[in-house]
Amino acid sequence: MQTSGNDIFYRNPYDVNECLFVNLSSPSSSKYKSVSSIGTPDVVAEKARRQYLREMMSTRLGVKRESDVISSADRVGSDGNEYYDLQVRMKSYASRAQLAVTQAEIDAATELEWDRRLITVLGSANNRLYEFRLQTANATYEANKVGHVTEQSCCDYLRTLQVQDSS
User: By C-alpha distance, which of 74, 111, 116 is closest to 96?
Assistant: First the structure.
């Protein structure tokens, strides 16, 4: 799930915790017949969790990132294609005393910096892997998941299409 440069990134200018990311694997180096060719939903979710941790690494002293796979499932969309739905929760902790002498002093001043939910849909077509990812603050996700259009329902709209090769 490395990016090939065929990606799109949008950030909500009013809420920096919210963003949308679309990525397509490279056509020359990928041979994805189906999304299941990259593994089971649980295996793929764990790979995604580790990748997201790498993407959000920090070089600041006293910063610690944690992540958990919330859910992973496969489904068949209304178009008949298989999709994987993944949810990962990430937390970042930062210390106000990152230059303290002992680790205990650093840990004592550590506080939650942010808590985000990453909702991802993976699908394949044209021998390529398609990734659609939404990110939002976990509190926003929890507040909106009952009785509203949720981030997950937006992910249900991802469709992969077979394209005829023009050559």
Answer: 111
Tell me the sheet residues that pair with 68: 89
**Separation between Cα atoms, residue 136 and residue 150, nearest integer Å:** 11
Contacts 24+ apart (CB under 8 A), 40-45: 41/72, 41/73, 41/74, 41/84, 41/85, 41/86, 42/69, 42/72, 44/72, 44/84, 44/86, 44/122, 45/69, 45/71, 45/72, 45/84, 45/86, 45/88
Compute the Cα dihedral for 29, 34, 37, 41 and give only its sign. positive
Q: Are 38 and 32 a contacting pair, CB within 8 Å? A: yes
As a whole number of angstroms, the distance between CA 29 and CA 73 comes to: 26
Amino acid 121 reads V
Look at residues 144, 1, 146, 12 and name the one whose alpha carbon lies nearest to residue 86: 1
Q: What is the pLDDT of residues 64-116, one digit of tens each?
A: 899 999 999 999 988 888 999 999 999 999 888 877 778 788 778 889 999 99
